[in-house]
Design the sequence.
């Protein structure tokens, strides 16, 4: 049976040219080349796609081809990260060991910068501090009272206009290490 070399369709013996391509038919098709697919191995997983993108760029800078899986699913909802196992970086099997070493080396060399404007806790000398403007307990209490009062007004049908509660200003530093609150050291 003759075959079309272009569209690889088999025809009856009496057909000499392919009706679709207009090419003369041949007796046998050439053997199809084997496609060698490298096995992909997951080398790391992340809860946030941004972390995976950064490490993929790191691997590409070292000429290691990497692939990211499930990043778009997790961008739909962060809750999917736990269900599907996170965002995965996969590399070819022969590049896996080198890629793991590159990512581990980058992880060991990184540090988390602390943004605290130079304030140091007077109790424990930690630089892990943050500036608080409002007392969170007072803000939540004031919102609770407004909601409680609104619920009381709706049942009593009294038309008293309400405003928003003002948060209580605290303005102090809080140490994330020991929990100590202190005023600005510079003033």
Sequence:
């Amino acid at each position: 049976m003759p075959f079309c070399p272009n569209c690889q369709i088999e025809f009856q013996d009496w057909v000499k040219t392919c009706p679709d391509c207009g090419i003369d038919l041949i007796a046998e098709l050439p053997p199809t080349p084997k496609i060698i697919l490298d096995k992909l191995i997951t080398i790391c997983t992340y809860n946030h796609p941004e972390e995976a993108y950064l490490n993929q760029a790191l691997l590409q800078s070292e000429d290691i081809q990497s692939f990211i899986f499930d990043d778009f699913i997790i961008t739909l909802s962060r809750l999917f990260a736990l269900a599907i196992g996170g965002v995965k970086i996969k590399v070819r099997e022969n590049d896996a060991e080198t890629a793991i070493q590159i990512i581990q080396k980058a992880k060991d060399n990184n540090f988390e910068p602390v943004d605290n404007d130079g304030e140091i806790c007077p109790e424990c000398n930690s630089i892990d501090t943050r500036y608080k403007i409002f007392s969170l307990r007072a803000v939540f209490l004031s919102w609770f009272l407004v909601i409680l009062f609104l619920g009381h007004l709706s049942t009593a049908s009294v038309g008293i206009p309400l405003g928003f509660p003002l948060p209580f200003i605290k303005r102090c530093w809080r140490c994330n290490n020991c929990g100590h609150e202190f005023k600005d050291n510079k003033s």
Q: What stands out?
A: The first strand starts at residue 40 and ends at 46.
